[in-house]
Amino acid sequence: MGKDNKKQLDTLLAHASSGPEPAATSLIRPLHMTTSFKLPSFGPELLDALLMESDAPPYAYTRWGNPTVKELEEKLAALEGAEAALVTASGMAAVSAVLMGMLKQGDHLVAQELCYVGSQDLSGRHLKQYGISVTLVDTTDVKQVEAALQSNTKIIFAETPSNPLLRVVNIPALAEIARRAGVYLVVDSTFATPLLQRPLEMGADFVVHSLTKYLNGHGDALGGAIMGSMEEIKRLRKEMIIHLGGAASPFNAWLISRGLVTLSLRMERHCTNAMALARFLETHPAVKRVCYPGLASHPHHELAARQMSHFGGMLTFQLNEGLNAVIKLAEKIRIFSYATSLGHPHSLLFYYPTDIYLDQVEYISPDQKRRIREEWMGEGIVRVSTGLESADDLISDLEQAMESK
Fold first, then answer.
1. Hey, which residues are catalytic here?
2. pTM more than 0.85
3. For the chain, domain boundaries
4. Which of 27, 59, 125, 194 has the fewest CB atoms inside 10 Å of its own CB, making it the most exposed?
5. Domain 263-403 top-level CATH class
């Protein structure tokens, strides 16, 4: 091969068939798996691409914005009834971005005393390193929330239904407290999804989701999202995602966007399966207690019925014989998988021992630990994420696992 031909082939390898098809008629939007975009000509558009001053600047670099990620953001904003959405690399990237983006040294946060462990540790352990003070309260008790407010409070953060205890927070009541105090209300609505609960319509300023869970629905992509006003989302994008780097992969955004298409169908099955399991477990002699917002026995059932359109796919239960019974359950299940996470098409269960998930947490007070243990956790809870299988098969699997010798 001649030297000139070699150069031509090298150039062809880089440029042949590259670039989007301008007249593509695909019914499914293509995946823009690229890091960089050709910039506009010198002038106002180029400045906007680099400085991101407008609501929809030209694309420059995927950490700043990407067509595939933008498509997902537009879908999520529409689902939540928000002005704008920001998609992040994970659910914790979303929680971190909204808390660290809205708080600064000297500010105060009121947050949930026991919730998803990542959010809990961020609030209880890490934020104080940056000069942010935090008061952890039972956010289901509006009097505790109101009493915790200080002159420098900037955010009330709540999860509902909460992970893993399935406590239900009164969003309109917290929104009214936040409005009177002039602070932001941030609600993590991952367990509910936009189909079952609408925090922004009830007065929240931001809603966050772990897209990894129900919104993706297939257990194959990490992602997170923040929804809120256009002004605040634009600021969080520039200050938190661009500078701190928690941007979503376009491929993950594409997978999650694909999963959203079946969200309504999936959530219907998740919810009906969870209710069937909860009713079965509530009558089983090996079970000490079942916690599911759809049961009349749940302390917040009436609130959940008012605030949610259905009760979700998550439940917890306690076994009479404690840890030994849990070990046997984990070893004997055949359809369920013993695994963390949730929102998968297949059913999962996982044990939360109180001595690890509560007793060893140094930033939760002894009085709080005593109350949580007595009212919610006992010596430990089994958390169930119900999948899309037959409810009868799931019930049979739990039944044989609990009754096997």
1. 63, 116, 188, 213
2. yes
3. 44-260, 263-403
4. 27
5. alpha beta
